[in-house]
Amino acid sequence: MLKSDQRDNVAGNATAANPSRRTILMGGAAVGAATIFSPAVLRAATPVIKIGHVAPVTGPMAGFAEAQPWVLDGIRKYLAKGLEIGGKTYQVDIITKDSQTDESRTAEVASELILKDKVDIITASSGSIDTNPTANVAELNEVPCITTDDPWESYYYGRGGTATKGFDWTYHFFWGLDQVLAAFIGLWQSQDTNKVVGTLFNTAQDDNSWHDAFIPAIAKAGFKVVDPGQFPAFGNDFTAQISAFKKADVQIITGNLFTPDFATFWAQSAQQGYKPKIVTLGKAFLFPSAIESLGDRGLGVTSEVWWSPDYPYTSSLTGSTCRQLVTDYEAATGRHWTQPIPFKHALFEVVIDVLKRTKDVKDPKSILSAIASTDLKTIVGPVKWSGQPVKNVSTTPVVAGQWQKHGERIDIAIVNSGLYPEIHTTSKLLPLG
Amino acid sequence: MEWVNIIFQGVLLGGLYALFAAGLSLIFGVMRLVNIAHGDLIVAFAYMAYFVMAALHIGPFTSLAVIVPAAALIGYGLQRGLLNWTLGEELPPLLVTIGLSVIIQNLLLVFFTFDTHRLHAGDIEIASVQFLPDLSVGVLPLIQFAVAVAIIAGLQIVFYRTALGRAFRATSDDPVVAQLMGLETRHIFAMAMALSLAVVAVAGVFIAIRTDFNPFYGPQLLIFGFEAIIIGGLGSLWGTLAGGILLGIAQALGGQFNVGWPFLAGHVVFLAVLIVRPQGLFPKVAL
After folding, report:
1. Residue B6 near chain A (CB below 8 Å)
2. How distant is the Cα of B210 from the closest Cα of chain A, in angstroms?
3. Which chain B residue shows the shortest CA-CA distance from A202?
4. What does the pLDDT look like over B13-31, one tens digit per residue?
5. What is chain B's mean pLDDT, rounded?
6. What b/e readout covers A247-268, taking b as 16+ CB neighbours within 10 angstroms?
7. Which fold has domain B2-276?
C-alpha cells in the first residue's frame, strides 16, 4: 500500500488507495468514478455485506466489461430490499474497481477491496489479467473469491495450480479447451474436406496452452495438422503462413487470434489467392462489431460460442430466459448483445446463492464452505465445484457457432453442440464468405 | 520464386512502415520532438474518416479531402496550444505526448466504445495483380507503397524547394538565430506539426482500410516507425523510406525462416545498424 501511495503522490494520479486530502484534491473525480459507495454504508442501520468486483472497464479488454453497468443495475435492483440470510436481512453493497486491463493495477485494486473496503467476498471477470491477480490476492489474504470469463486452464495453470494441488480460497467457472476442441472437431468432421488443418497461434502464454492442447487433439481426431509455428501478435505480414497453407492445400484454418490480426491475414489471403473452406478461430470473432468490420467477407466464419440467446437456461435470480435477457439488454442499451454479458450476470447469481446458503456471513470460512457446496443452475448453465476437471473449477458449456446475416442483422448460429447435446444447433453450416 | 514473393511482400510492408514513420520523421527533424501519441493520432484520424464516410456517404479515399485539411488544422492548434509550451528540454515534450496518448485512447473509448471498425474500400481491398505465376501482389499494398513514396517525395520538395522548407531547415539548425532573422519559430513549429498530422491522416486511412482498429490499436506500430527512422538516419526523409523497406524485408525474411521471428529479425537489423552505423544509413545532421 505504501508503494502505491508514493506513486500516487509523485505522478499525481490519484487512486482510491488510502485517499489522503492531497490525493482527493488531485483526482477526486477519478476516485468517484472508480468506486461506487452507497451512502447507506455510513448509516449501517442494517448489517452490511460487501461484494468486491474487479473488471477491465478501460484498457484493451474494455469490450468485455462494456455491459457491466447494465448487468449491475439489474443485480442492484434485485438486492434493493436487502438479502435475507438465515432469517436476518442484510444490506448488500457491490463495490466495483477498474483494473484498466493491467495486471499490477488489478492486484492493487483487489488489495484495496480486501484491506480497505474490507469486502466479505471478492469477484473478478474478463480475462486472466483480471481473474488471476485478483484470485492470487484473495488466496493470500484468505478472502473467498469467485471469478469467471477466462478459459479455466489459463486461470488454473496460469496461477500455478497442478493436477493434485489446487487453491483454498479461490473458485472459478468457465469453459476449457477440451470442450472447445470437441465442438470444433465435431464441426469439421461434419463437413466434406481433405482433412488438412492449418493453425494460427500467437506466442503469448495463454496461446501456448491453446497450441499445446490443439495440435495433438486435432491429429488424434484423424486430421493432418500444418503448424507453421507460433508468431507474435499484431504482426503485419502473413505471407509465410499463407504460402505454407497453400503448399499443403490446407482447407481448414483454426487457432486463436486477435481481430486485427485476422483482418490482416484474411485480406492478404485474398490478395495472394488463398481461400480455405472453413475458418474456425478462438477469440477473433467474439464481438459482433468485429464481424461487421470485416464486411461480407467475414460472414460464415466459425468460432467458439460461450453462450447465445438459444441456450436452454434461465436466470436463478430473475427467471429470465436467455432470449429475454438479450431482448432486455438490446432494448435498454440499443447495442447488440455480446457473450460476456450473461457471465457477469451468472457471477452474481452464484455469489448471491452462496451468501443465501452461508451460515455465518461474517465468517470467511463459512462463506467458503457455501461456495464449495454450490449446485446452481444459472443463465450460463449449471455451476457446481465437484472436483472435475480440477478442484477449483466448474466448467460451463461451450459449443461452435457461425456468424450469419439475416436481413440487416448479423448473429451467431449454433452449428455444432460439441459435448452439450442439450444445446441444440440452430442452423447447418453455410459456406464461407 | 518463393523468395521473390517474400521479398516483394517485405518491400510493400516497408511502405506501410514508411507511411507510418514519415510524419514522425518530419517533426523530429524540425523540432527534435518525439511524439509518443503518433499512433493514437493515426487511430483518431481513422475514426474521423469512419464518421466522415458515414455522414457524407463517400469512400475512404474521397474522405481524405475532408480529413487531411482538418488534421492539418488540428496539428497547428495542438502545436501552438500545447506542444510549443513544452519545447526546450528533452523530457517535457516526451512526457506530454505520453499523456496525450493515454488521453486520446480513453477519449476514443468513451465516445466510440470498444467496437472495432474498418474502413471499407470495396473490391480494391482484395484485388491483386499476378506478376509471375507465384507472385500475386495486392493492389492495396501497391497503392499504399506508391502513396508512401509520393508523400516522402512531396515532403522533400517542400523542404528543399519552398520558402516554408527553408524556414523549417533554418529553425531546425538553430532556432535562436532563426528567430533573430525574423522567423516566428512558434508558427514554424506549428506549420511542421500541421504538415505532420496531414501525413498522419493519410496513414490513418490506409492503415484502417488494411486492418481493424479500435481505440487501443495506436501503439502497435509505433516501435516500427521509430526503427524505420533510426535505421534510415535521423532527419532524412528518403532515409526513413529506406529504413522502412529494410525493416519490412528483414521481417518478411525472418518470418520465412521461422514464423516466430519477424519482429526479432527486424529488431536484429535495427541493432546491427545501431552498432555498425549509429548515425543511420543516410543521416542528415542538418535536415
Report:
1. yes
2. 7
3. B260
4. 999 999 999 999 999 888 8
5. 91
6. ebebbbbbbbbbbbbbbbbbbb
7. ABC transporter involved in vitamin B12 uptake, BtuC (1.10.3470)
DSSP string, B233-264: -TT-HHHHHHHHHHHHHHHHHHHHH-TT-HHH
Task: Give CA–CA dist B38/B8, Å, rounded.
Answer: 27
Candidates A211, A272, A283, A339: best to mutate against B (most CBs of B within 10 A) is A272
With a CB-CB cutoff of 8 Å, which residues 110-139 of chain B face chain A?
A: 113-118, 120, 125-128, 136-139
Closest in A66, A229, A231 to B114, CB measured = A66
3-state SS assignment for residue B63? helix
Q: Does residue A180 have a pLDDT over 90?
A: yes
| pLDDT recorded at residue A227 | 95
Residue B1 has what pLDDT? 67
Q: What is the DSSP string of A189-216?
A: HTS-S--EEEEEEBSSHHHHHHHHHHHH
Instruction: Centre a 10 Å sphere on the Cβ of residue A201 and count the other Cβ atoms it contains.
Output: 25
Q: Is B220 on the interface with A (CB under 8 A)?
A: yes
A296 burial (CB, 10 Å; 0-12 / 13-18 / 19+) is exposed
A231, B262: Cβ pair inside 8 Å?
yes
Across B97-113, average pLDDT: 92
Domain assignments of chain B as residue spans, ordered by start: 2-276
Work out the minimum CA distance from A271 to partner chain B, whole angstroms: 5
Rg for chain A (alpha carbons), in Å? 22
Q: Indicate whether B66 pLDDT > 80.
A: yes
- Mutation choice for A interface testing from B117, B126, B144, B257 by most A CBs within 10 A: B126
CA distance A22 to B115: 37
Q: How far apart are the first and last CA of chain A?
A: 53
Residues of B in contact with A243 (CB under 8 A): 2, 5-6
Sign (positive/negative) of CA torsion B209, B210, B216, B220? negative
pLDDT of residue B220: 82
Locate A220 and state its grid cell: 488424434
Query: Does the interface ipTM go beyond 0.90?
Result: no
Size of interface A-B (CB pairs under 8 A): 119
Q: What are the structural domains of chain A?
A: 35-175+311-394 (3.40.50.2300), 178-305+398-416 (3.40.50.2300)
